[in-house]
Design goal:
The complex is a heterodimer. Chain A is built from ten helices and no strands. By secondary structure, chain A is mainly alpha-helical. Chain B is mainly alpha-helical. The model of chain B has no long low-confidence stretch (mean pLDDT about 90). Classes of the chains: A mainly alpha, B mainly alpha.
Amino acid sequence: MDAGFDFSVIWRNITYFFIGRFPHGALGGIALTLYLAVIACVLSFFGGLILGMLNISHNRVVKYVSLAVVNIIRGMPLLMVIFWMYFLLPAFMGKTVSESWTVIMALTLFTSAYMSQIVKAGIDSIPRGQTEAGLSSGLYPWQVMVYIVLPQGLRNMIPSFVNQFVSMIKDTSLAFIVGVSELTHVATQINNRTIIYPTEIFFFIAVIYFIICYAFTSLSRWLERRLAWRR
Amino acid sequence: MFKYQFDWSVVLSGQYAEWLLSGIKVTFQLSVVSIIFSFLLGLLIAVMRMSNVRPVRWFAHGYLEFFRNTPLLVQIFFWYFGSYKILPMVINDWLNRTNFEFAAAVIALTIYTSAFIAEDIRSGVRSIPKEQMEAARSSGFSYIRSMQYIILPQAVRITVPPLINQFLNLTKNSSLAMTIGVMELTYQARQVESYTFKGFEAFTAATLVYVVISMIIAGLMTLYSRKVLNPIRAK
């Protein structure tokens, strides 16, 4: 065993851990982690909504193609999705795409596939009778979806969405691989510079991730209890 | 994409195909070893979590929450870069003489996945109505025997699908081991890309392997729930 721990390396670099080089340079650290997670989460909420609706479409071609897309993405490791984005985005866009946006697009695509399953389950949780009642009142199918099924279904999905957000925060750590300076990347930089404090540094960021994720996990459990009680 | 010359022979034959094959082999080894360890550890943590002894239960609870709410990548880095300060010298020496990258990846994958497995096992056991245990106990079975003959056989059948799902997640997560230099499938695909610039072909090959494994297992699970689970529920 070594001579014990020295956590002073954390305090010496504390602002770098939290905000990177900001305000004199690019935003980094925990702030960038949260920024990536929030943007990708909002985008994948809509992505999941769209994919989920396509999955239950009455048009067979649309249904099976979208199901195939969802299953292929769910069968891939996130790391692979990031490499695909890194490789394909510039080809499709015809110009270079920043690393942050590459990661945001990869996280969005990946999480949308998982969100679509939550959306599907949420829609399934609304009794068929409601759709039938809506249709026989003379509403169009899309109106039934937007005004009757989704508002109730979304409520049931809220705890699962929060859980997905927790996964998203953990998944942003993979942005390290393409050099986005979020928390994990910042930690490896500090580790490379100081060399002798890896245990302290990685334990510290594990605790930071834990605090953030545990807070949201608790929120999701609380929401689950509260929404169940109200019903 | 545009004006791109496809050349599938790169990944289908010769040296680069061999790299990819060896990557598949390492992914397979890494996954199987970690699956076995994480199942055993997950079982132990689940039993501790349901224990009547408070400190044991609290420890298991803390373990679950901590490792589930921390990114796997950070855990991999912690064990790879940081474990030398917390492990005894003897183990460090032994690890350095063996394939330390592989060992660190196994440790991280095992601990991370065991936390999820423990929760799945616990909710499987909890899904068996309490009355079954009470009925077993009042028929004269001891606690252990009630578990063995009444509760566990039912719980295991319910727990199989989520467990297989965790094993599948572990296999996909094993791709993160490339960050510390374990030469598994994703690592090799990236190697092929940087040597040949044939990224499209290399990533397609690797993606196919992951997706085919996932789909086979998903198919088996559908079969399982149709043949094994539904008949139980219908009774």
